[in-house]
Amino acid sequence: MKKNLALLIVLLVGLLPVNAQRDVQKEMNKIKSSPNYVYGEATRADREEALDAAFDEMMHEADQWAADQTHDKDVELSNDDVRELVESMETKRGSQTRVLAYVKLSKLVSLLREAGYKVKFQEQSEDDDELPTSTAEETEETPDVEEAKPARETTNVPDVTVVSIEGLSDDEILDVYLYNDKGMTPEQEAAVERAAARVAERNNVVAGTGTALEQILAVRSFYDLKSVMVPLKLNGEITKLGKYRTMREPQRSYLIIYDTDARIRAVLGPGSESSRKNLRTGNKDSIYNYGGCGAIWFQLNE
User: Fold this and answer.
1) H or E element at residue 74
2) What does the alpha-carbon distance between residue 125 and residue 273 come to, in Å, rounded to a whole number?
3) Confidence (pLDDT) at 216
4) Beta-bridge mates of residue 221
5) 3-class DSSP state for residue 182?
6) How many Å apart are CA 262 and CA 156, to the nearest integer?
7) Residue 93's beta-bridge partner residues?
8) Rg (CA), the chain
């Protein structure tokens, strides 16, 4: 298997100088944050073992995505078919090799359609984090979709690429903690707690009571979210969160939807793009009803 995998995967990068390695890492981060790919990542001393592990993780993500798209929990993509479509990047971490294996979702859609599944799929823009708007093919009814308009820079969820918080402002520290997928030291987490307290005081955000969902539902402004989400993540009530376009598990992920005036328009429960529960109204809702808005997803420790 290892031999075949090494032959079939398109290896874009080998051992490169430091500057080139940084460029590769940048490209890897772009793939990981794109809404149009599934990927797997692994670091091993042996390069072929890293390839295998990254491919296996990617297949797990691909099968989960396929199950969500087809509404068939038993659907299973063929390893051999997917392997022919996979690309990869690799970089060095000391004596170890880090591999990112990835495949474009549009290619997986073709495989599912060849297998007889009727899959509705629309590739998303790489340039922003707005929610998609619907088409006649995607929904039976025409939803109330707003005309998309550019979001204010202050309400964009930031791209976080640093781990060190030294010299950062309180808001930047909270961004690093919330949207960076790397862990922090106990000292850094203590600094995050202090920053969260200062931001809450500055924004006159009163500490919430009740469950995690009740506290989130009480927030009305995008600007106040950090002061609520950070404590919930620090105490483990929120396990993951990120930009809408990085969401990989929609059936487990809640959505906070905000508009260009920083108003939180809705909090939607887990589900598909076209079918979620609006947790404020209790009614069935869809992300297609919020065209032109941005969103972040989060998962609860349930």
Assistant:
1) none
2) 16
3) 92
4) 263
5) coil
6) 9
7) 96
8) 20
Query: Distance (Å, rounded) from C-alpha 244 to C-alpha 294?
Result: 8
Contact indicator for 298, 250 with CB cutoff of 8 Å: no
Rounded CA-CA distance 77/97 in Å is 27
Residue pair 105/78 in contact by the 8 Å Cβ criterion: no
d(CA 58, CA 70): 18
**The token pair that represents 34 in the structure block:** 């794109």
Task: Yes or no: say if 163 and 182 are a contact pair by the CB < 8 Å rule.
Answer: yes
> Do residues 90 and 97 lie in contact, with contact meaning Cβ atoms separated by under 8 Å?
yes
pTM of the entire predicted model: 0.50
Mean pLDDT by 10 residues, the chain (302 residues): 42 44 73 80 86 87 84 81 86 81 88 82 61 47 32 45 65 76 76 80 70 90 83 86 82 90 91 89 90 87 84
- What tokens does 198 get? 């200062």
Q: Are 186 and 167 in contact (CB under 8 A)?
A: no
- As a whole number, the mean pLDDT across the chain is 75
Whole-angstrom distance between the N-terminal and C-terminal Cα of the chain?
Answer: 37
Is the distance from CB of 294 to CB of 258 less than 8 angstroms?
A: yes
On whether the CB atoms of residues 79 and 136 are closer than 8 A, the answer is no
| Tokens linked to 284 | 């069935």
Residue with tokens 């500055």: 202
Written as six digits, the tokens of 297 are 């997803």
